[in-house]
Amino acid sequence: MTGDVATASRGSGPLLVVMGVSAAGKSTVARTLAAQLGISYVDADDLHPTANVEKMARGVPLSDEDRWPWLDRVGQELKDAPAEGVVMACSALRRSYRDRLRGAAPNVGFIHLTGTRELLRERAAGRADHFMPTTLLDSQLDTLERLEGDETGIRIDIDATVENIALAAREWVASRDCDRDKTGAA
Q1: pLDDT of res. 128
Q2: Which domains, and CATH codes, for the chain?
Q3: What's the burial of 43, exposed, middle or buried (CB within 10 Å: 0-12/13-18/19+)?
């Protein structure tokens, strides 16, 4: 993928969203990547209003009307990130959702975790105490829009260890830093 390095507007640290469908490992990978980079981690699931969480727990997919206030809150968290940067776990399934986040934090970069339907189902079935039921996986896969060529981001297959996935993401972030240094782009 192309694009300038994702850096915080108030500092030089990266603004990163680890995205993908439920059970892709967003939270685990984002937490690991944040630790590797030595920056803050935020889980967008924690920013959902109670009504959204209750709706999903009942197996009802969220509508865009449900998502917009949540995405605005996620975007604000990215915009207000500490100067060293932040790694956010957030589904960001549609281009319009990512555009909404970019509206608040234009330099955000996306790390899209991808996997086969079978692997995702297996992982979802093995999770305990998560508000997102396995029955919503198909809905999320139907909603998912891949990163487009003009979006700053990378796709990483989840059929690897968490450490290797985070390492691939970290290498991408480092390569974007190098590109910025070579071109002088901000």
Answers
A1: 57
A2: 15-180 (3.40.50.300)
A3: middle
Angle among Cα 29, 34, 38 to the nearest 5 degrees reads 150
pLDDT in tens, 52-68: 999 988 888 889 999 99
Average confidence (pLDDT) per 10 residues, the chain, 186 residues: 45 90 93 96 95 88 92 97 96 97 96 93 69 69 93 96 96 79 34
Buried b (16+ CB within 10 A) or exposed e, 55-79: bbeeeeebeeebbeebbeebbebbb
Q: What is the reported pTM?
A: 0.85
**Buried (b) or exposed (e) across 121-138, using 16+ Cβ within 10 A?**
bebbeeeeeeebebebbe
Q: Where are the beta strands (DSSP E) in the chain?
A: 15-19, 40-43, 86-89, 109-114, 153-157
Cα of 175 vs its chain's centroid, Å: 19
The sign of the dihedral angle between the CA atoms of 54, 60, 61, 64 is negative
Q: Are strands 40-43 and 86-89 parallel, antiparallel or unpaired?
A: parallel
Residue 107: strand, helix, or coil:
coil
